[in-house]
């Protein structure tokens, strides 16, 4: 009987930790199910169950047995579908959309790609230009390289840029010493 009480305390503690309470019939139902689960994997099973439960739009923090039975069935379906086949999947490279950065629109747009495996010399140069545009865009948006907004008047930003400049100066000295 002590094992049932420890299982019950673990179940109730896991639900209370997430801010949920169980009705009496729901707690009895869950304790019966949890007693069949090995003690080593009980916490992970409860975490998966509570994660599925919180993904649903709950009207209150009190969980009823009907909702709990639906979630348990969903969890069983997920656990039965988990197999080694799902660990490895092959994606078609031509079915994945490709995005390039447009300087004029200042956002990423989808690019139509040809299904040709061997491109022309022009497409090879486009690949390098697109990589350059992507790196340039990321660099310009980085805090270190962004322009200082003087209208904000924050003294905190000045200190931040002094630290960055000092870091860059130390880095350049370190590189020149090599």
UniProtKB/TrEMBL annotation:
Residues 6-75 form the DNA polymerase epsilon subunit B N-terminal domain. GO terms for cellular component: epsilon DNA polymerase complex. InterPro entries: DNA_pol_e_bsu_N (IPR024639), POLE2 (IPR016266). It comes from the Eukaryota. Gene3D superfamilies: 1.10.8.60. It holds the Pfam family Dpoe2NT. One of its GO terms (molecular function) is DNA binding. One of its GO terms (biological process) is error-prone translesion synthesis. This is DNA polymerase epsilon subunit B N-terminal domain-containing protein. It comes from Adineta steineri.
